[in-house]
Amino acid sequence: MADPMRIRAQAAGDKATVRVLMSHEMETGQRKDSAGKPVPAWFIQEVSASHNGKAVLSAQWGPAVSKNPFLQFTVKGAKAGDKIAVSWVDNKGDKRTDEAIVS
Amino acid sequence: MHTRRELISQAAAVAGLAATVGMLPAAAQAAWSQAAFDAKSMADAVKALGGSAPAESKDVTLTGPDIAENGAVVPLACACALPGVKRLALLVEKNPNTLAAVFDLSDGVESNVSTRVKMGQTSQVFAVAMMADGKVLFAQKEVKVTLGGCGG
User: Taking chain B, what is the end-to-end CA distance rounded to the nearest angstrom?
Assistant: First the structure.
């Protein structure tokens, strides 16, 4: 199981800015190790976010997204106390879901 | 004692098995569009995502640094001023695979996302917005990279 994500959701007016920091190696499959063998690709492929249980955003990522990926988006109509959940699945089938409360 | 023929057929069986096992995760994650991420140019990637020919537009904004010191972490943000954006994509022209990320937006989020990508070398970066009416718009920007992010 991967490390937890860090999610911050801050309400401003009638919307909330959500910032997510995921903990993932994001190996591209292009690198070679010290023995010259290629390091197999290992990256987050799918990300989805929901607001109070309703899916609002989904994303497909390639290996070009940086290590320990950062994602920021804005949820309309979110107010303090609402629940934001973010989950990802990587190309090895590993997954993780974390939640945060809008402040 | 194995004959040569037996050895060959065993090798083939093992290879076949390995291929089947290797295929499993791909089949389980059919939602991830392999073709789009394999594409080598923006036009191919947009086509693989089901879009028409992209047109440059001032309504799409791509925010990023002019010079990125570290190609491993290049902050990029894309936004679209027009309503009805279905999808936003970030592409880096000279990366081994052009497409970096695709975001499927619902009505619940604004058409404004940011993330960080890796860049192998100085390149044009594209933000592509696919609209609900089928139009595909894009914005581009050159980002100079001092230290590549794809090497070892």
Answer: 45
pTM: 0.77
Looking at the structure of chain A, the number of domains it has is: 1
- Measured distance CA(B65)–CA(A7) in Å, rounded: 24
Q: Please report whether residue A1 resides in a domain.
A: no
Does the structure show a pLDDT above 60 at B23?
no
Report the residue of B49, B76, B103 to disrupt the A interface, i.e. the one with the largest count of A CBs within 10 Å.
B103
Query: Can you give the residue range of the structural domain that contains A34?
Result: 6-101
Residue A63 lies in a domain: yes
Position B118, amino acid: K
Contact B60, B46 (CB under 8 A): no
Per residue, what are the HEC states of B79-134? EECCCCEEEEEEEECCCCCCEEEEEEECCCEEEEEEEEECCCCCEEEEEEEEECCC
The answer, for A46 touching chain B at a CB cutoff of 8 Å, is yes
